Amino acid sequence: MAVVPDESKVVYNFLGKSGLKVSNICLGTMTFGENQIGMWGQASEDMAHQILDRYVEWGGNFIDTADAYSSGKSESILGSWLKKQDREKFVIGTKVRFPMSADNPNSVGLSRRHLVKSIQNSLERLQTDYVDLYQMHLWDNATPVEETVRTLDDLVRCGKVRYIGASNMLGWQMQHLVDLTKMMGTNPFISLQQQYSLVSRDSELEAFQVCKANGMGVLPWSPLKAGLLTGKYKRDSRPKEGRIGWAAEKGLGAQAWPAWDSLLQDDQIWNTLDTLEDISKKHGKSMAQVALRWVLQKDIVSSVLIGTTKMTQLEDNMGAANGWKLSPEDMAALDAVSAPKLPYPYEFNTRLNKGRSNAFIPSYTVQNSSF
Ligand SMILES: NC(=O)c1ccc[n+]([C@@H]2O[C@H](COP(=O)([O-])OP(=O)(O)OC[C@H]3O[C@@H](n4cnc5c(N)ncnc54)[C@H](OP(=O)(O)O)[C@@H]3O)[C@@H](O)[C@H]2O)c1
């Protein structure tokens, strides 16, 4: 592998208004280990360790996993690598909430009981005695949120966790969590890990405004919409490769493995891909790199979570980290073509507030967003 020039290496950002510094590209590990649903292209332990080693050569220090990824195997693969590293150099984030066992009703959710057990299991798999960022993977309707917030704070106080974060939140849920931490005097949520890309911008409407107002860093997941934004899938041919090909063959559809038929029907997606391709040609960059730069250049983003199944994908994606930028005109063109349609009351509220600003009142609008 070629030596990575210093000017291309990652930059380090604060994670929200915390004092923690993370590389602007975070290595996601959802693709590590055979998973329970048999997705194609998952990386073996050996390949995963090679990907991790190379990510470090690009300057990366931030690695994201979850207890549920490959039923704990993603954490174990990361742990067997981490054991051989200087632990202090890395920022490790993991998550909790999804079911971990079919025959135990307490191995799911955000209860005190499950959180305490789950962090212990994650620490054992990761072969470390603390994680830097412990994230609620999703809201839990069945547990009082005060119980969750208090327990997460206890985990920070007893040293198993350094910071807490959230993921996949609705706007009101995130605001409620922020308010509760203030009322209860607990440690704050410093980040929100949310799906965010040129074809998934709905979180700009609410959740990201909560982040902006409260100094939380956004950690976009699926920034390439499972590979769609690399341009490798063409509208006129049913995909046979990659995660989207796998979902098409199995007739499946979910946020992280979108259904081909629903992608096909959405003209805005294909118009966005056309603009992406034009801009990538202009810069001599890959479409993946331009799609990642669009997210990286949003002011609310602290670090973008990439996923890779191959070393070539890692190299391509890390090429978005530094050394070049999209112009304001490029950003505006991408913002315009991918602008989400605003339902009521967003459209009404936005249109009638256009031009109304007061320098003494902070604007929470995401930079360059179309509203
Ligand atoms: N909080 C959550 O609920 C949540 C949900 C999902 C993911 N995440 C996190 O976010 C991370 C990234 O998510 P993601 O994997 O969905 O991200 P993504 O960047 O949208 O998709 C990654 C996939 O796209 C394909 N790909 C990536 N780079 C490519 C390139 N340069 N050229 C061609 N194909 C390329 C690969 O799949 P193929 O080779 O199979 O085509 C790869 O596995 C995950 O690892 C995880 O840590 C979090």
Question: Which key features would you list for this structure?
Answer:
371 residues, alpha/beta, TIM Barrel, eight-stranded parallel beta sheet, two-stranded antiparallel ribbon, 10 strands, globular, binds NADP nicotinamide-adenine-dinucleotide phosphate
- Which CATH top level class fits? Alpha Beta
Q: Looking at CATH, which topology would you report?
A: TIM Barrel
Query: By CATH's scheme, which homologous superfamily applies?
Result: NADP-dependent oxidoreductase domain
What can be said about the biggest beta sheet? 8 strands, parallel
Q: How would you sum up this structure, described in words?
A:
The chain has 371 residues and is of the alpha/beta class. It has one domain (10-353): Alpha-Beta Barrel (TIM Barrel), CATH 3.20.20.100. It is 38% helix and 13% strand. The protein is built from 13 helices and ten strands. The strands form two sheets. An eight-stranded parallel sheet has the order 9-8-7-6-5-4-3-10. Strand 6 (131-136), helix 4 and strand 7 form a beta-alpha-beta unit. Helix 4 (145-157) packs across helix 5 and helix 9 (267-283) packs across helix 10 (287-296). It is globular and about 50 Å long. 44% of the residues are buried. The structure holds NADP nicotinamide-adenine-dinucleotide phosphate. NADP nicotinamide-adenine-dinucleotide phosphate binds at residues 28-31, 41, 64, 137, 167-168, 193, 221-227, 230, 232, 242-243, 256, 288, 305-309, 313, 316-317.
